[in-house]
Specification:
single chain, about 270 residues, five-stranded antiparallel beta sheet, 5 helices, globular, binds biotin
Length: about 270
């Protein structure tokens, strides 16, 4: 059987196959019944998002692909994503019960962000925050990035978290690693479990509660920021994240709403 995550106790992993490059395991037990959730663990792969997208028909809801190293990790806006060993690098599948509208789909990055933040907090509390649109920050620096890609009615949720990897010197002012020996598989499972809970909440009409929670963790709030949209740059003070997911920015005493844009933060506001 396949089950919603809400009452799963992950008791043990059952290894199905193990080779030099790949381990396939099933995870979990639902009350007294075993549930099957595939968790593919690669040592090295180009990108876990690519793999899941290319093989989407062989996956089911909540199945996971992880890798120790990615050779062509991808970030948002076509950026590449440095993927050394020690990072949690994974993608999981969301297969909704019905086709999601465009508006609903725009909520998923927020759901993935707040789920990741909570998973991390539950493992060990700390100064985590949510940076619009869907980064998780730790001690005011980027800890995690999320890339969600749609394949027809499915969504591949790709997440990279700096767990035990060292941050290169040239980006140490903006990025951070937990530099901790967390059990990466357990962290991944916790993120997917949290996601399934928040997603259920969203589907049961409680989006406003989720936005409120995101706003309580809003890293940008009251910071002086710049929004870069193509060649244009807008400057102002970040306020709340609106119900529709847009960021409110105060400019010349007026609130403007932004749905896209790369954010930079004035140094003194970090
Ligand atoms: C960002 O630009 O902040 C998003 C980065 C997302 C990186 C993750 S790592 C696992 C998955 N596979 C990829 O190629 N990208 C995502």
């Amino acid at each position: 059987m396949r089950a919603s995550f809400s009452s799963i106790f992950v008791i043990k992993y059952v290894i199905i196959t193990k080779s030099k490059h790949l381990t396939i395991i099933v995870v979990g037990k639902y009350k007294t019944r075993r549930i099957y959730m595939k968790f593919l663990k690669f040592n090295e792969i180009d990108s876990t998002n690519n793999y899941m997208k290319e093989n989407v028909s062989s996956f089911e809801n909540h199945d996971i692909v992880s890798a120790k190293v990615q050779t062509a990790g991808r970030g948002r806006r076509g950026n590449s994503w440095l993927s050394p060993e020690g990072m949690a690098l994974f993608s999981f599948l969301l297969r909704p019960e019905r086709s999601l509208s465009m508006v609903e789909a725009t909520k998923l990055p927020f759901i993935a962000g707040i789920s990741t933040l909570n998973a991390l907090k539950k493992i060990k509390d700390g100064a985590y925050s949510f940076k619009w649109t869907n980064d998780v920050f730790f001690n005011s620096k980027k800890l995690c990035g999320i890339l969600i890609e749609r394949v027809k009615d499915d969504f591949v949720v790709g997440i990279g978290i700096n767990v035990a990897n060292k941050i290169p010197e040239d980006i140490k002012n903006i990025a951070i690693s937990l530099e901790s020996d967390y059990d990466i598989d357990k962290l991944i499972l916790k993120v997917v479990e949290e996601f399934s809970l928040y997603y259920e909440k969203f589907m049961s009409g409680k989006w406003l509660e989720i936005v409120e929670e995101i706003n309580r963790n809003n890293f940008l709030k009251d910071k002086k920021i710049r929004v870069h949209i193509g060649e244009q740059i807008f400057e102002g003070i970040a306020k709340n994240i609106a119900e529709d997911g847009r960021l409110e920015i105060e400019m010349n005493s007026e609130i403007k709403l932004f749905s896209v844009g790369e954010i930079t933060i004035e140094k003194d506001y970090y």
